[in-house]
Design goal:
Strand order of the largest sheet: 1-30-29-28-27
Number of helices: 0
Number of strands: 33
Oligomer: single chain
Distance between the termini: 29 Å
Length: 364
C-alpha cells in the first residue's frame, strides 16, 4: 500500500446551513444537497461549480432524493400541510417545482425510497408506508406496523422492501397491503442495511449494539461492545463484510462463513471523532471512505494489513462532517458539514479510475 497522503479540498462552497443529505445524479453532473432547515440545492459541475438553492419546505426537510434519471427530485418535509411531498425538475441550472402533494391523513413523511427502475417511490410516515406514482398520486398503502418506522430499504428484488421499528422488522411485497413476514423484537434501531444478496439484514441501534437477521429463517444475533450509538453501517459490495461504527473505530465482521456469531471482529481505527458515515467507493469494491465529527474523511482498503488509511482529506473549517457522497466515477467525494460548508475532494491521480458506470453509486 502507498504511504499515507493528506489532501486538501479541490473546492469548498459556503452553503450556509446544516447539510443533512448529499446525492449525486447518475451521470455525475449534479450534486443534490438537502439542508435541515427546509432548503434544497444543486451544484452543477459545468467546468466550475454553480450553486442554485430554493426553499423546498417551510419549516423542515425530512428527506430528499433523485427520482429516476430525468432530472427529477422528490422531497418531503414539514410546511403548512401534513405529509407534504414536492417534486422538482432540475433544468438549465434552475430548480423548478413540478407538483406538490399531501398524503391524506398522514403526518410528514420521514423517509423516501425511489424505486431503482424509476417507476415511483415509497414514503414512510409514522406507521404507514405508501407507494406513490411519479406524479405524487398514492397508488397503494401498506399497513400493519405496530410502531413508527425508523428506516426503510429496498431488497435485492425490486418488488420487496424492508422496514424496521422498535418492535419489529418486516418484509413487504408490492401487491399486498400486509407484511409478508414479521420478526418481532424489542430494540432501538437507527438504520437498516441489507446485504447485496438479500440474505442478511443489519440494524445499528441506539443502545450501542448491532442487530443482524438471517432473512430466510428470521434467526438473529446481537453484537455489543460499541462505545456509542451505531449510526454508521454498510455492507461491502460483495456482501462478505459488514462494517459498523459506534465511535472512533470501524468494526468489520466477516460474513463469508455460515454465521459471524462467536468470531472476533476486525477493528480499524484512525479518526479522533465519532464516525458518522461509511461509503464504499464505486468501481473499487474493496475501498471505502469514512467521515467523522473530527471534520476529516478517510479512504481505507479492506486488503490493507496495516489497518491505516490510504488518504485523509481535511477541511480548513473547524466543523463536524455530517454526510458524504461518492461521485459515480469513484474519483471524487463530496462531504457536508454542520456549519454549512460543502467540500469536494479529488483522489490523487494514481488512484483514479475510468468513469464508465451506467448506474448510480449507493450513496443513501
Amino acid at each position: 500500500m502507498s504511504d499515507l497522503r493528506l489532501i486538501d479540498p479541490l473546492r469548498s462552497i459556503e452553503y450556509g446551513d446544516y447539510i443533512r443529505h448529499l446525492h449525486w445524479s447518475e451521470d455525475g453532473t449534479h450534486l443534490l444537497i438537502g439542508e435541515t432547515a427546509g432548503g434544497i440545492g444543486i451544484v452543477h459541475l459545468n467546468g466550475g461549480a454553480t450553486l442554485t438553492r430554493t426553499i423546498a419546505h417551510a419549516t423542515e426537510l425530512t428527506d430528499v432524493r433523485w427520482l429516476g434519471c430525468d432530472g427529477l427530485v422528490i422531497s418531503s418535509g414539514r410546511g403548512s400541510k401534513k405529509g407534504e411531498l414536492r417534486c422538482w425538475r432540475i433544468e438549465d441550472g434552475e430548480i423548478r417545482l413540478q407538483w406538490c402533494s399531501s398524503l391524506s391523513g398522514l403526518a410528514a413523511a420521514e423517509l423516501l425510497r425511489p424505486a431503482h427502475d424509476g417507476s415511483g417511490f415509497l414514503s414512510a410516515a409514522g406507521r404507514i408506508i405508501t407507494w406513490c406514482s411519479l406524479e405524487g398520486t398514492e397508488v397503494s398503502r401498506f399497513e400493519g406496523a405496530r410502531a413508527a418506522i425508523c428506516d426503510l430499504q429496498w431488497r435485492d428484488i425490486q418488488d420487496s422492501f424492508i422496514s424496521v421499528s422498535h418492535l419489529e422488522l418486516q418484509i413487504w411485497k408490492q401487491g399486498s397491503s400486509r407484511p409478508a413476514r414479521t420478526f418481532n423484537w424489542n430494540g432501538s434501531p437507527l438504520q437498516l442495511s441489507v446485504s447485496p444478496d438479500g440474505r442478511w439484514i443489519a440494524s445499528g441501534c441506539r443502545d450501542q449494539t448491532l442487530h443482524v437477521w438471517r432473512t430466510s429463517s428470521g434467526n438473529d444475533f446481537r453484537m455489543s461492545g460499541f462505545p456509542g450509538q451505531v449510526r454508521a453501517l454498510r455492507w461491502s459490495p460483495d456482501g462478505s463484510q459488514l462494517l459498523a461504527a459506534g465511535g472512533e473505530a470501524i468494526t468489520s465482521w466477516d460474513f463469508t462463513r455460515a454465521t459471524p456469531a462467536g468470531q472476533q471482529p476486525r477493528v480499524i481505527g484512525g479518526h479522533i471523532g465519532t464516525i458518522v458515515d461509511i461509503g464504499f467507493r464505486p468501481a473499487s469494491p474493496r475501498q471505502f471512505a469514512t467521515i467523522g465529527t473530527d471534520g476529516c474523511w478517510m479512504l481505507w482498503s479492506l486488503d490493507s494489513i496495516a489497518l491505516r488509511p490510504m488518504v485523509i482529506g481535511t477541511s480548513a473549517a473547524e466543523s463536524q462532517a455530517t454526510c458524504m457522497a461518492w461521485h459515480p466515477s469513484g474519483n471524487s467525494i463530496a462531504v457536508g458539514f454542520d456549519t454549512g460548508e460543502l467540500a469536494l475532494w479529488e483522489l490523487p491521480a494514481d488512484l483514479r479510475s475510468d468513469f464508465r458506470r451506467t448506474h448510480p453509486s449507493d450513496d443513501h
